[in-house]
Design brief:
Belongs to the FAH family. GO terms for molecular function: hydrolase activity; metal ion binding. It comes from Amycolatopsis acidicola. It holds the Pfam family FAA_hydrolase. Keywords: Hydrolase, Metal-binding. The protein is an alpha+beta fold. The protein folds into 2 domains: 293 residues, Fumarylacetoacetate hydrolase, domain 2; 66 residues, no CATH class. It is 28% helix and 27% strand. The protein is built from 12 helices and 17 strands. A 10-stranded mixed beta sheet has the order 4-3-2-1-12-10-9-15-5-6. A 5-stranded mixed beta sheet has the order 7-17-16-13-14, with no helix packed on it. Strand 2 and strand 3 form a beta hairpin. Helix 4 runs antiparallel to helix 7. The chain is globular. The chain starts with 12 loop residues before the first strand and ends with a helix.
Length: 374
């Protein structure tokens, strides 16, 4: 299957499936060409990830129900493989995307001004910060120089300063899975996908699995003002996660996740194509440092959380008018993939036309209770 990791035969893969018969989600394990139901053992993904034997259950627990993998994929029945976890995100964690944020800010969300600003300040800034360790004394000295030159920005502050940007990307249960539509606001004229490594973290702050995510972003909104971050980030179907959680085990560890190579492929109905790749190893702060800023004595998550770790993608290729760069169009197929994590595939629509988010926490609790699950 196109969704599966290259080494799927040895991967511990956790899925979440919509079951039309039950009228709700099932926690499931991907085993070869079959997807087996684990809901009787763990009614939510959050419950399962808290168990010390989680990987063993996903690999070998007996079950009474199973579905063909191909049928679920064709029917669009794979949900985001998380449920009660809070959806957090780290921003400006790669130099390339940090510079694009600076450009967005100085262009005030206007793509026509972006190329001029990119040419004027890009090389100056990049040469000074590409090898800096955020929060270091050297970074502080560079900050002083940039302030003196009038080049300081709030994005450089979180990119090389002592504290990263950590924000809540989307409400609990609002993420969509592979095969679903993803939404951008109809009135946005400059937007892009943000393909990222996503880590699943337990209530004890321990990362136990990885997957892929699309932190859909409106560059024109955030570029006008950082105070528009929520409107730029949190819209109907604006967060995609999947296809599956790959649990850490003897075949795939946190170190393997750190070495993830992410590919982005966009195909438009107008014949436009965009292809790119990035390495998580180029991240400015280690993922465990990012986790420590989200979780600790200052903040707990009783149901765990997932963390988007940031992206280095900020497409600048012109799609239509020269100098305006890239922006989505309805019908774009966005494929985010990594050899060890499979492929997350979604089609772009507007947030206004995407299916309404209706299945929230109360609906989940009622559904599980009606099925005799607790």
């Amino acid at each position: 299957m196109d969704l599966l990791p290259e080494d799927a035969d040895r991967a511990t893969l956790l899925a979440r499936v919509f079951d039309p018969v039950a009228g709700g989600p099932c926690v499931a394990a991907v085993r070869g060409e079959q997807v087996v139901d684990l809901t009787a053992l763990a009614p939510t993904v959050a419950d399962l990830l808290e168990r010390e034997d989680a990987a063993e259950l996903v690999r070998s627990a007996e079950c009474s129900r199973a579905w063909p993998l191909a049928e679920l994929a064709e029917g669009g029945l794979f949900l985001a493989p998380i449920d009660l976890q809070v959806i957090k995100a780290a921003g400006v964690t790669f130099v390339r995307s940090m510079l694009e944020r600076v450009i967005e800010e100085r262009a005030a969300g206007d793509p026509l001004r972006a190329e001029e600003i990119r040419t004027r300040i890009g090389e100056v800034v990049r040469g000074r910060i590409s090898r800096l360790r955020p929060g270091s004394e050297e970074a502080a000295r560079v900050k002083e120089l940039l302030v003196a030159e009038g080049l300081w920005s709030q994005y450089l502050e979180v990119g090389i300063g002592p504290d990263p940007e950590i924000f809540t990307k989307a409400p609990v249960l609002s993420a969509v899975g592979t095969g679903a539509e993803i939404g951008v606001l109809a009135r946005s004229t400059w937007n892009n996908p943000e393909p990222e490594l996503v880590l699943a973290v337990t209530s004890a702050g321990v990362p136990v699995a990885a997957t892929l995510g699309n932190d859909v972003n409106l560059r024109d909104f955030e570029g006008r003002s950082a105070l528009l971050l929520t409107e730029a980030k949190d819209n109907n179907s604006s967060c995609a996660i999947g296809p599956f959680l790959r649990l850490f085990d003897e075949h795939y560890t946190l170190d393997d996740a750190r070495r993830t190579e992410i590919s982005l492929d966009i195909t438009g109905t107008d014949g436009f194509e965009l292809h790119g790749s990035s390495a998580v190893s180029e991240i400015s702060r280690d993922v465990t440092e990012l986790i420590s800023h989200a979780f600790g004595p200052h903040h707990r998550y009783p149901d765990g959380f997932v963390l988007f770790t940031g992206t280095m993608f900020a497409p600048t290729e012109d799609r239509d008018t020269p100098g305006q760069g890239f922006t989505h169009k309805p019908g774009d197929v966005v494929r985010i993939s990594a050899p060890a994590l499979g492929a997350l595939v979604n089609t772009v629509t507007t947030a206004e036309k995407a299916p309404d988010w209706e299945f929230g926490i109360r609906a989940l609790m009622r559904n599980l209770a009606a099925r005799g699950l607790r």
